[in-house]
Amino acid sequence: MYIHQLFLSLSLPSTLFPLPQHHITVTVSKKEELFAMEANYKYMDAAELVALLDNSDQCEEVAVIDCRDEDRADGWIRGSIHFPAATQNQSKHMELASTLNERGLTIAVFHCALSQVRGPRAAGRFADALRALNLQAPRVYVLRGGFEHFHAMYADSRPDLLCC
């Protein structure tokens, strides 16, 4: 999507410049959402992730990928895959994409401490690897607020979701 399309869709009647519905729902104030659309991933709230992990039919199809480096030592989401940002490269993204696809995982949720840099960057590179390998799955998400937000929400009420 192009920025001028976004402005047109927000300021002009749709009868003058008809655009697909998904162009109208994005707002300029959500820069991360706009970038995510271009990078082929979406954001997922912590509550959505917990709902997936609690669903016995879906939890086996979800990969949580932790892109933190040494700060992972402070704790992590139980069952997450450690994929440190400092060691990532194109071949590792390709390998991860192939592995998750072969295991039948349908959702990959990336995060770092705040999901502002390392997590979104890894999600974008992972989405690129999926395209390069011509793979449709898994769908790619970034955990909104990252581990810090997840931990703040669930450390007391759901310690079963966390490891230290």
From TrEMBL:
Molecular-function annotations in GO: protein tyrosine phosphatase activity
Any one of the GO CC terms: cytoplasm
Start and end residues of each Rhodanese domain: 58-159
Annotated PROSITE patterns: RHODANESE_3
InterPro entries recorded: Rhodanese-like_dom (IPR001763), Rhodanese-like_dom_sf (IPR036873)
Protein name: Rhodanese domain-containing protein
Biological source species: Trypanosoma vivax (strain Y486)
Taxonomic lineage from the root: Eukaryota, Discoba, Euglenozoa, Kinetoplastea, Metakinetoplastina
